[in-house]
C-alpha cells in the first residue's frame, strides 16, 4: 500500500507538470519522499541535446560536464550495457579516472551509495535515473531490495512525462475501455499477468488482449511504457 501511495503521489505531480521546472520539482519531491540525499533524471535526446531534473549541487553538475566525467563514469557504462538496475557498490572503481571521479563527487557532497537505471527511448534517446545517499551498506541493501521495482516504475513514469513534453502536439487519445483500464491498473499495482487475470475473472489470453489493445491506443513501446503513459495522462490511478 505504501508503494502505491508513493507512486500515486509521483504520478499526480507528473500529470500536473507543465514544463521542465515542474518536472524538476516532482523529482525533488520524490527525493523527499524517499528521504535520500539525491534523485536524478538525466536524458540525452536523439539529436545529442541533454537535459536533466536533478537535486545534485550545481557545482558538481558543472564539474561533471566540464571534466567530461560521463566518458569514464562506471555507472553510465554499466547502465548503458544492461537493462536492470545497477548498484554502484558492485561496480569496478579501481581505475584511476574512476577513483578521481568518485573522490570529486564525495568532495562535492554526494554519497558513495547509489542505484541507477537506464531507460531507452525512440530514435536513440536515452535516460538515466539514479538515487544517491550516504547510508551504510546494510541500509542501502535493504533500501534497494524494498524499492527496486518501485524505482523502475518511477524512472519510466518520469521519462514518459518528459517525452510527452518534448513531443509535437498529437491528436487526442481515445479513451481506454473499462477492462483496459482495469488491466493496466492491476499491472501498475505490481500484479503479474496471471494474478491480474484471476482478479478480473478472465483468462490470461484475454487479459493479454486488453493490455495489447491499451498499448496500441497509447502508442506505447511496451507494457511498462503503456502503464507509465496511462498514469501520467491520468487515465488510471492507484
TrEMBL record:
Pfam families: Autoind_bind (PF03472), GerE (PF00196)
Keywords (A to Z) from UniProt: DNA-binding, Transcription, Transcription regulation
Record's keyword annotation contains Transcription: yes
Transcription as UniProt keyword: yes
Gene Ontology biological process: regulation of DNA-templated transcription
GO terms assigned for molecular function: DNA binding
InterPro entries: Sig_transdc_resp-reg_C-effctor, TF_LuxR_autoind-bd_dom, TF_LuxR_autoind-bd_dom_sf, Tscrpt_reg_LuxR_C, WH-like_DNA-bd_sf
Domain HTH luxR-type: 169-234
Gene3D superfamilies xref list: Transcription factor LuxR-like, autoinducer-binding domain, Winged helix-like DNA-binding domain superfamily/Winged helix DNA-binding domain
UniProt protein name: VjbR protein
Gene label: vjbR
Amino acid at each position: 500500500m505504501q508503494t502505491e501511495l508513493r507512486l500515486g503521489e509521483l504520478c499526480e505531480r507528473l500529470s500536473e507538470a507543465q514544463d521542465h521546472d515542474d518536472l524538476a520539482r516532482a523529482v525533488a519531491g520524490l527525493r523527499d519522499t524517499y528521504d535520500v540525499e539525491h534523485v536524478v533524471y538525466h536524458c540525452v535526446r536523439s539529436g545529442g541535446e541533454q537535459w536533466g531534473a536533478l537535486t545534485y549541487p550545481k557545482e558538481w553538475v558543472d564539474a561533471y560536464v566540464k571534466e567530461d566525467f560521463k566518458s569514464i563514469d562506471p555507472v553510465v557504462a554499466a547502465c548503458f550495457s544492461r537493462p536492470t538496475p545497477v548498484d554502484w557498490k558492485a561496480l569496478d572503481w579501481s581505475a584511476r579516472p574512476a577513483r578521481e571521479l568518485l573522490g570529486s563527487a564525495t568532495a562535492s557532497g554526494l554519497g558513495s551509495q547509489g542505484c541507477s537505471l537506464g531507460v531507452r527511448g525512440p530514435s536513440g534517446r536515452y535516460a538515466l535515473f539514479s538515487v544517491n545517499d550516504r547510508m551504510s551498506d546494510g541500509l542501502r541493501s535493504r533500501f534497494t531490495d524494498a524499492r527496486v521495482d518501485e524505482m523502475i516504475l518511477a524512472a519510466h513514469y518520469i521519462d514518459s512525462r518528459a517525452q510527452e513534453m518534448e513531443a509535437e502536439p498529437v491528436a487526442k487519445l481515445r479513451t481506454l475501455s473499462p477492462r483496459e483500464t482495469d488491466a493496466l491498473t492491476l499491472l501498475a499495482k505490481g500484479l503479474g499477468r496471471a494474478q491480474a487475470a484471476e482478479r478480473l475473472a478472465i483468462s490470461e489470453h484475454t487479459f493479454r488482449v486488453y493490455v495489447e489493445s491499451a498499448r496500441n491506443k497509447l502508442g506505447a513501446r511496451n507494457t511498462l511504457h503503456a502503464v507509465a503513459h496511462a498514469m501520467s495522462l491520468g487515465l488510471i490511478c492507484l
